[in-house]
Amino acid sequence: MLKFLDTLSQHLSHKRNPAALLAGGAATIAGLWLFNLSPAPFSQTVLLAKTGSGLLDLLPFYTSGEAYRNLSNLGEDGRSAYGLFLAVDYLFIAIYSMTSAWIISALVRRTPEAGSKLMRLNLVPLALGLCDFVENSCNLAQLLAFPAALHSVGTLAGIATLSKHCLTILVFGLMAYLALRAFRPAAKAN
Description:
With about 190 residues, this protein is mainly α. It has one domain (about 20-185). It has helices at about 1-15, 20-35, 45-50, 65-110, 125-145, 150-185. Helix 2 (about 20-35) packs antiparallel against helix 4. The protein is elongated. The protein starts with a helix and ends in a 7-residue tail after the last helix.
């Protein structure tokens, strides 16, 4: 397994296409706007205004019962919009996790005295994407089964959501730390 992870990390680290990085960054920002602020029927602001319930994905954690209540409060139109959100979010996961991995790879390459083991940090965004994928899959299963409640799936969704948010903080922290290291002025020799 470690050999596979090393190979994956090295593959990510060799992608040096600035245009892809720029496009991925722009798509990530556009996706954040789309899900949070846009007038799209599945955006957080529209769902909150229409139903009083928002996207489960934006909650830090939820129990199975809270997830069921949220889906119930969304109503038929809100659940339909949520299904559309999930379809778009699957694509968004691939974009932001790969872009974040490329950014971390680029920052590690620019970091003085960075060893190859440090390059493995580019796998953290993929773990984040995996948690988001599990969360979406669980929420989609709950949505398709509604009005039946899938308690174990709801519990797994809540855990995946919490893990996703923790890994998001870690990824941003890693990028900030690596950027500070990569772009700090060189120490002057006496």
